[in-house]
Structures are given as C-alpha cells and as structure tokens.
Amino acid sequence: MRKNVIPGSFQLMKKINTGLVFDAIRLYAPISRAEIAKLLNLTPATVTNITAELLKRNIIMESDFGKSNGGRRPVLLKINPNSYYIISVYIGPTKVRVATINMESEIMCSKQESLYSNISFEKAKEIIVTLIREVIDSCIVEKNKILGIGVAIHGIVNFEKGIVVFSPNFGWKNIGLRDVLEKEFDIPVFIDRDVRAMAMAENWYGEGREFDDFICIKVGYGIGAAFIKDKQQIRGVSDGLGEFGHIKIKVDDLKCICGNYGCLENYASERAVIRFARENGYEDEFDIEKINLEALNGNKVIVEALKKAGYYLGLGVANLINIFNPGLIIVGGDLVDINIYFESLIESARENSLEDLFEHVKIKRAKTGKDSIIKGAGLLVLDSLFDSIEGEVIV
Q1: Of 91, 221, 240, 313, which sits 20 to 30 A from 247 (CA to CA)?
Q2: How do residues 260-304 score in pLDDT, each as one tens digit?
C-alpha cells in the first residue's frame, strides 16, 4: 500500500484517507473495517466515518460477515460496481474511442471511429459527442448514475482548466474541451494527457500498484512520459512535464512535428520504425500488426528498423535513469509488445546509463494492456471523487 504520510490541510487529509480506504476495499475486498484500519494505520473511528460516507453515497456495499475472533462477526465491505458509471474518452492520433465503465473499471460497452490528421475540432467534436450519446444509450445508463466524463488525449493539456493546449496531430491549440463537453452533457468533465491516463491505470491496476514513485512512458505515433511521486502526478509549472519525446537526440537533423529538430520521437516512435524500413527499401503497407508479423517471419529490414528505434528509446530511458534514479520505469504501447523493440531498448538503456543506477531500476512493460488509456481516462473521474467528499460530485 502507499505510504501513510498525510501532509497539508484537513481537506487534503480527508481526500487522501478516503482514497486510501477506497483503494483498500478495491484491492482486498471483501474486507472489514478493522482490517482496513490495521492495513492503513488509520484509527477505527476514521475508517468508520469514511466508510459511512461511501456507504451513504452507494459507492461501497456491505457484502457478508467475516470470521469472528471471539466477538461478533465483522461486516465485510466491497465496491458496489454498478452503482455509478463513468464515460471514458480516448482521443488518439488516428481514432477516438468512447466507453462506459463501472466503478471497478470494467468496460460495459465501447465504440470507436477513425480520425485523420488536421481534422477540425468542430468535426471531431461531432464525432465525440455522437459516440458518447451512443454508449450511454447502448448501456442504458441513467444520467444521474454517471459520475463524469474522463478524457485522455494525445498532446499537451492544462488539467486544471480542462484545455487542450496543443494537439500536434490535429493542429488544435487552446481548445476548451472541458467547457464544450460540460455544456453539451451537463456532467463533470476531467481531461488529461494520454500518457498520464496510462500511468493512472498502472498506478491503480498495473505494475505501479506496489510502488509510490515511478515513471511511465507511452510509445505510439509520438512519445510521452508521466511522473508519479507518492502516488500523485507531477505536472510541472505549466502542466507540461513529460514531453519526453522532444528531448534532443541529434542536432540540426530531422524536423519534428513540434517544429524543432532532432527530437527523440523522430527516432524511436512508430513513425520512426516506418521511416527506417522505407529508407531500406520496404514498400508494403504499414500497421503495427503487419510490423509484428514481418518481424516474427524474420524480415531483416523490419527487424533492423525495430532494433534501431528501440536503441534510440533506450538512449532516452538511460537519460531518465541517470537524472532521476527511479526504481521503476513502465513502458507501454503497441511497439513495446514486440520483443525485438523492447529487448533493444533494454540493452541500450543498460549500455548508456550508469551501471549502479541501472542495477537499481526495473524496466517493465505496462500491465494494463490495450485498455490502459481508456480505463485511465475513467480513473481521472474516480480520482476526482475524493477531491471534496462532502461536495456534489455524486448526486
């Protein structure tokens, strides 16, 4: 479990403790109040008060009786999975996916549609709104049972203001997406970067569950990173921390979509693998399944392209290791599932980082898989649930 260090105000203390109790029930249910108090080093009164709030709001439920240790049998608690629902939206570089998920992050239904480069926001908005309405109708979700809408998007996001600052694939700048969707649906909306949603999913359900601090890297058409400290996102002064794909690997080389030159994602992303292969004569169509199949069949051009891209990502990872000395780095994305690429990045990170620092870091693939971002988007809503447990987040 996470460290029981509660800094700051009473309201922050209540948020963190409520989140701790919710996590304990989610992870170890069915569990008694006494077991929660012992596990988290909280007073029985604190646990009783928090669980009373969660029961009142139907977030948890009493499930059964536990074993007696001489007195009355304790009442056990568990999450009430279908008491409320969340609409999750992932706006990726090439498609938008919308899902309805329950309180245990199970996907109830899901729909998606393709997007294209430089699509206008107005056109994309029509697609997103239509898909949200479709998943609500498909799952027969009553509006008063929807906690909120969580949106993960590729690009730079101002989380506090709900603004898409810059989406490189679409060319969007300073789009007030939260306000647009809240006006459309009259439901709370929470927006963050896709890699932070992935980190959230790994934090709750994946490799990061047993770690307080870790770095999460997402590899796709672009590359981004999220930094978790004491189970919380670190965001930077202007909410821009994590533009890992734009560290410089070469000087005065290829121009990146960000406008600068020599960025890591030009050499380590899916786009890089495609470019490396085409530079060596590969002319067939490209998608991630095709790349994987060609690699498995021993296509030398594809194998070398994957090794080269993995090597460059390993250089970037080595920089993170040398600067931050992390205990865990989680890497996710379709490319990472291809062994040649992953093994190349591990070897490159080993070669290019300080030996002692490399020995103390674990580099692991994301455990939450292809649904990590869509589930992570939903967790943006669940995490906000405890910002003000007295408030009207749940009605």
Answers
A1: 91
A2: 889 999 999 999 999 999 999 988 877 888 888 999 999 999 999
